[in-house]
Amino acid sequence: MVRIDLIFNSGFSWHSKENCHIKGFAHVPGDRYLSGIELLAYFEASRDFGDFMSLVSLANGMFSVVLERGGSAWMAVDRMRTFPVFYAFRPESGQADLPAERARDLLISDSTDRIIEQIGVWKLNREASTEFLATGYVTGRETLAEGIFQVQAGEAVEIKNTRESEFSGPPVNRTFYSSYRTSSVKAGSIEEQMPDLEGITERIAGRLVNSLDGRTAAVALSGGFDSRFVAAMLKKLDYPRVTCFSYGREGNADMIRAGEVAARFGFKFIPVPYSDSMIRNYTEDREFSDFVRFSSNRASMFFMQEYFAVRHLRENGMVPDDAIFIPGHSGDFFGGSQLIKHDLHDGLEDIRKTIRRIYDYKYSFYRPGGRAAAKAILARIEESLREKRHGGDAFPYSMHEDWDLKEKLAKFIVNSCNVYAWFGYEYRLPLYDYELQDFFRDVPFGLKRNKRLYDEFLINRVFGPLGLNFPGELQPDEKTQQRARFRRKIRNALPAAMVPVTLSQRDPIYYNEITGLLRRDLARRGIRIRIRGNSYNSIIVQWYIARLESEFHGARSSG
Q1: pTM score, two decimals?
Q2: Does the domain spanning 2-176 belong to CATH 3.40.1130?
Q3: CATH class for domain 190-334+410-486?
Q4: pLDDT tens, 130-155?
Q5: CA triplet 456, 184, 52: central angle to 5 degrees?
């Protein structure tokens, strides 16, 4: 039996009809914008799983879909896993004599808590917990609860009806319908690539405005290029309802620059300076506790940096209830900011070197202790890379990028947007538009290195005509980045005790004070935390794992 229990309707709501359930929106062939019942009808028309995957792959947007057909289930999330979907198997009562693969109920939910309520017990996944402490997310299809799985970014899952008398083949069919891997690039200089990128940007802006449907665009504006790019799209199309906001320590450089950008555009600007009174005792709030459950869901780190800003805007009525939030994630990634940072090159390399590079650069919050733990993590990375294989051979650097996109960006960066939904708002991620992804996937390595094409396009074709270039803004040159990469490599190779803790007392986001409450909460419970370098996120993940440990042991004791 298939049991579907979808409960999170804040921000974006689930729409259901009989055995089809969807959340979100998409632009489908013909650039038709679909949401709600229209999007449901689009997926409901699937004739079989192959047809379902085809429809999913052609839908450019932010969505999740669950269909039940004849006791079987089809599930898919968009390329960025915007709205997580989880599943697990539960042996049926009174059917213990059946083979395990046939004696199961299938449980599907957007909440791991709800699945655990159905199962009755749960067990902490220790290997996944070690990984989570190092990265802030669980890679692959696993979660922090053993036996509960997640549908991955760009993945469609078919779970067949195991009760059929003629059943054959594996009950679970998992397929990645999209990939950021590439084995060829399109020729052309920066100037030759510019017209295509301009056309794509115009179409993305049009799709964004179409999806806003006249509602207020609340742009999370920083001092960087990406959020400014989003604001420029809206300005160029003269979108009439734009409010920009910035947050953090009062007078921080990003907030000042954001105010300057908004003023040049003529957009309303709301600074949200953080203070001790704004964050006081938040760890004791029921709302915060519920937010943690909603946002982390035993798979990803919850983010705190925008939590207080969005709460402040809502509580003070500074944006309309139907406003749509728009952060600037993650144009710099597609532009190529990670190529030098992660020591990527366009030559061939053994997969073991790719695995090691991912370990060195992505597993830095809290290093796994001992050889056995490190070996297990390396094996997880290898498994994740191999299962993401899509088509034939690919450039090793694009294998790294595809892993990064499906793991860190989907489960860490995109997951941070849960804060908007938690407070009841929809959001948009225009720089994840599939057309922009596909364009930069196939840009020559040399034009992505140090964001050459991306920065020149923004500076000369977008910001320049709008008077939005400021001195000293370019990404550091290659030598500066190489020196920084060398320092990171040395630091990551050192034992935790030898890495100096350098938490800034004046960090721009106010994270020292925000995470300070988490540190004190752990101290009250007698838990000593480990911090590497300047990572506030390492405090958040350790606090969350300690919370789950307490919950897990409490459940065992009561059982």
Answers
A1: 0.92
A2: no
A3: alpha beta
A4: 999 999 999 999 999 999 999 999 99
A5: 100
